[in-house]
Amino acid sequence: MGRGKAALLLTSWKIARSYWFSEEKWSAWGLLVTVITLNLGIVYMLVLINTWQVNFYEVIQSHNYQGFMESIGHYCILAACLVVVRGYQIYTRMMLHIGWRRWMTERYLSDWLAHKTYYLLQLSQEHDMDNPDQRISEDIEMFVWLTLRLSLDLLQDLVTILSFIVILWNLSGIITLSIAGFEIPIQGYLVWVAMLYAMGGTYWTVKTGRPLVKLDFDQQRFEADFRFSLMRLRENAESIALYGGEKQEKWSFHQGFGKIVATYRKIMKVRRSLTWLTSSYTQISSIFASIAAAPRYFTSQIHLGQMFQIVDAYRHVQTGFSFVVDSFTLLAQWRAVVNRLNNFLVSMEMVRGQLPRAYKLNISRENASVYSACNLQIFLPDGALLIKDLSLMIRPADKLLIMGESGCGKSTLLRTFAGIWPYASGKIIVPDKQKVMFVPQKSYLPYSSLREMLVYPDIIKEDKDKVMRETLVMCRLPHLTDKLHIVADWGHTLSLGEQQRVAFARVLLQKPNWLFLDEATSALDESTEQAMYKMIVSTMPNAAIISVGHRNTLMNYHTEKMELNRLGSCVVTTIK
Questions:
Q1: Which is it for the CA torsion 53, 58, 63, 66, positive or negative?
Q2: How far apart are CA 350 and CA 528, in angstroms?
Q3: Who's near 382: CB < 8 A, 6+ residues apart?
Q4: Residues 424, 372 within the same domain
Q5: What is the pLDDT of residues 129-171, one digit of tens each?
Q6: CA gap 307, 315 in Å, rounded
Q7: Among candidates 371, 417, 425, which has minimal Cα distance to 393?
Q8: Looking at the structure, do residues 132 and 103 belong to the same domain, yes or no?
Q9: Fewest CB atoms less than 10 Å from the CB: which of 166, 363, 407, 575?
Q10: pTM of the prediction?
């Protein structure tokens, strides 16, 4: 158990330390010191209020109206100061929170996008990384909030204990217990009572609430899986409607939501027991201090003001000792969040570190005039050989058509040329300072304006609306010319054929030197396909075009054909 807690703390420090030693470390530490100082100020104000209670109840007991009004005025000043300090403490904590979250979000996004990690995680069979979007959008927020909340609350509780335990010790005096005829004097007995009470509450809270750690972890995963399945229905609405798959989808949703309900019911039972325990603990503690202090009061060793001071001090000490009791649910959530973020970090590190070393694909940009591959070996994720010993040279203005039966590796070859397929070895030389563009069968259309989508992944830096309208007309999309500034989900608004024509509009606007097309005209009729190819050949005569496809009509636009087979070999012939 101790090792598990130590490992958890080390893991959380591994996640957190980068921010505290980053380029923003001075502002981060400055805000943290400010928050801690304000926390200490709050404890100091509470000590002053505790001391104020002695005088307040004394003047009430002595019917001193003048002293009563002065005490009220004194309290108003203390309360106003406490309110101001609390307000600034919350404000600075929130500043630290959003700064830390922003930095971590940017870092995780960078790591996720760097070196195609998001793609490698999808390909990897060994690292089952579920819902990385949730890790970045929700778990980082929870980690920052819970870490600040728990660590600062723990610090404040420790300072509170140290501050009020002195008061409680001095007011406790000495109590004598008679056991089997022996008189045992106990110094500061109220302190020991508070400690024993808190220790008992902590033990039973941990014992009762321990299952929450795994249950909260599972619940977050099931919730994310359920959201993802709903999102997939929205993204594939047309296909599901055509198949009439509503019944199957509903059954799948019921299965996913059933896991949420079953886990939630388990959480309900644990939290019910935990609530019974913590509520009983809190309610009993409110009267427990009075019972503990009663012997000294009724023997006239302390007066009424000191009695209330003891009750207040005891409450603060007992609350400080009860950190685990009061924060157990948060601690369980924090542990689950730390585990999820750590799994995400480890998965990203492993897919980036292991795959390139295992397959040793060398892609380099050189001052060369040809796009070439040498001794290229391409494998499936399970290690099976897909393409063997491929050496190829593609010169400017070459027109190469890659064909073969389904599953022989045509699209995977293009992924390897693009440098995103990690299960390969050999060398690929890319001509330096020349634009290379890959167009998949279904191009990605971001949620943005049409003009921003047309230059993706570049960013619009100048007004090209006139050129864009002309290009849309050339690509047989005249109905989109007046929609350049409309923001929409174009992936669902446009048909697959329109999406492929938009991809050709991108090609014409960005004018790559090396153009790779992966079945980029599969949704177009032969007439439109012919128009698209003729257009790019005439407007970009020096561009090399490498196409993957099944249609024999594609041979009309290429000069060479590469035929792949399931044995992993290929043959290049001239098209007559």
A1: negative
A2: 45
A3: 125
A4: yes
A5: 667 877 888 889 999 999 999 998 888 888 888 887 777 787 7
A6: 12
A7: 371
A8: yes
A9: 407
A10: 0.70
